[in-house]
Specification:
Elements lengths: L11 E4 L22 E4 L19 H11 L5 H4 L27 E3 L1 H7 L3 E6 L9 H14 L4 E5 L3 H12 L3 E7 L5 H9 L3 E5 L3 H14 L2 E3 L5 H17 L7 E5 L4 H15 L8 E7 L4 H9 L24 H11 L3 E4 L1 H13 L6 H15 L8 E6 L7 H8 L14 H4 L12 H14 L1
Parallel strand pairs: 4-12, 5-6, 5-8, 6-7, 9-10, 9-12, 10-11
Antiparallel strand pairs: 1-2, 3-4
Bound molecules: ligand F0G.
Length: about 450
């Protein structure tokens, strides 16, 4: 069974800066004319010539929605995947090359306590940490790893702050490919490192930061026949679009007022924004949610680009944050993310280490939980409420990108009050103290446990 588009709607590559449309991407997925990033577009949809007119090969939105819904009842592996289920909006990859772990299909949770803390009535979280390797990367990786398989690569590679590498290693293993992981030594969580090892990757811990790993890898792929699986690879972006499609389906195709995402290398915000724009143009949704991007204050090159330079340039920086997933100083996809901000009318914000830690505990207290980088979304929402950008009656969806168990070290240190001790943020800790639930060590004695229970009841 062929999947993806027929020839009329086949996807093509185009450079986001000069518009050149190469037949194939080079090893580094950069435009050979100007060096900028490539993206997929779908000439058959005739979106570029739209100008308000009906495109000739416009897929029928009602038929697509019905088709995608029907696939949920299918027993075919590709229909069950929350990525491949939406293949009509993705470039074509032959079915025999598809590598799937049943990714996507992630839950949409209501967050009542967080809603109260943020001062909004209608707050949901789409939990991308509920993917097979426990982060949002799987939705892009199933698709991009399959494109590596289709091209017969023996080796795939990525630079990573931990989640991309975990995901790539798993999908490579499933597709019988070798994987090479470049990670910054001492700057990723054990949970993520342990995944890459178990899935069998060649894992190189480089004495540098994430941006240094990217530099080495970019040079490597120009010399060696390894397939680059970072989010500069446009197949990654296409796969990650499906999180937004699935979200709209879960909301009955009624878009929320706001979607809030963390910003690191800025692939995810670009992907979700691209999906929203395409869905609107295809009339799957009638209006665009505002997509806002939140960065950690110590890793805020995109925030500064927008606020200080009006998006005209991005100054790389040496990044530092305990939310190690987004400790990135030179984000590759910043121009794509900027376009999404402009198109949707979204905002950019930055949040402190303490704001991230408190928000993470609040998401945990709603019985959901996430890793630190995901919690910037709630911390950012609070700031966007205070600035008036988000109104109390507006609906908001946070994209939680990684699972709570990715970084237990952070969580335990927070609850023990050890996370930020010795830093200036310690002084602002009053907000966090009420959220801390340090474990209590007791004798194996009934009276001691009852006393602890009674004390907890009094304080609740
Ligand atoms: N949240 C988590 C949990 C992440 O792992 C990442 C990125 C982001 C947010 C930011 O997403 O880069 O698309 O803007 N992690 C990458 C990695 C860089 O290597 O795992 P982005």
């Amino acid at each position: 069974m062929p999947i993806g588009q027929n020839t009329e709607t086949a996807a093509r590559l185009r450079c986001i800066a000069c518009g050149a449309s190469p037949d194939d991407a080079g090893q580094d997925f950069r435009c050979s004319a100007c060096g900028d990033l490539l993206e997929f577009f779908f000439p058959g949809w005739n979106l570029d010539q739209l100008d308000g007119a009906e495109p000739r090969h416009h897929p029928d939105p009602a038929a697509l929605k019905a088709l995608w819904l029907n696939r949920r009842a299918s027993h075919e592996a590709l229909d069950q995947s929350g990525v491949w289920r939406f293949r009509e909006l993705l470039p074509h990859i032959a079915a025999e090359h598809a590598i799937t772990l049943g990714e996507g299909n992630t839950p949409l949770y209501r967050l009542p306590r967080c809603a109260r803390a943020a001062g909004v009535e209608n707050l949901h979280a789409k939990h991308q940490g509920m993917n097979p390797t426990a982060s949002f990367k799987d939705t892009g990786m199933t698709f991009a790893a399959s494109s590596a398989h289709e091209r017969n690569f023996r080796w795939v590679a990525c630079a990573s702050t931990g989640n991309t590498s975990a995901s790539m290693a798993a999908y490579a293993a499933r597709g019988n490919m070798h994987s090479l992981v470049l990670i910054p030594e001492g700057k990723i969580s054990w949970g993520k490192l342990s995944q890459a090892l178990d899935y069998g990757a060649l894992t190189c811990q480089l004495r540098t930061d994430f941006d240094g790993c990217v530099r080495v890898l970019t040079d490597l792929v120009r010399q060696k026949p390894v397939y680059l699986l970072n989010s500069v690879n446009p197949y990654r972006i296409e796969g990650q679009k499906t999180a937004a499609i699935e979200l709209m389906e879960q909301l009955g195709w009624e878009p929320p007022d706001h979607i809030i995402v963390p910003g690191g290398n800025l692939g995810n915000s670009s992907a979700i924004g691209k999906a929203l724009i395409e869905m609107r143009e295809l009339k799957l949704i009638s209006r665009l949610p505002k997509l806002s991007i939140i960065q950690a204050q110590g890793a805020n090159p995109f925030y500064r680009s927008v606020r200080e330079f009006g998006g005209k340039k991005l100054e790389p920086m040496t990044a530092y944050t305990l939310a190690t997933a987004i400790q990135i100083g030179n984000p590759a996809s910043w121009k794509k993310a900027l376009r999404v901000l402009d198109a949707t009318g979204g905002e950019v914000e930055q949040v402190t280490e303490m704001e991230i830690a408190a928000a993470k505990a609040e998401i945990g207290a709603d019985g959901v939980g996430c890793e630190p980088a995901s919690a910037v979304t709630l911390a950012g929402l609070k700031k966007l409420r205070r600035s008036g950008f988000v109104k109390p009656g507006e609906s908001v969806v946070l994209i939680l990108t990684g699972h709570l168990l990715k970084d237990p070290d952070f969580t335990i240190k927070f609850h023990r009050g050890e996370l930020l001790s010795g830093t200036s943020a310690e002084n602002a800790a009053a907000e966090a103290i009420s959220l801390q639930r340090a474990p209590v060590v007791l004798d194996a004695d009934l009276g001691a446990v009852i006393a602890a229970l009674d004390a907890a009841e009094r304080n609740s």
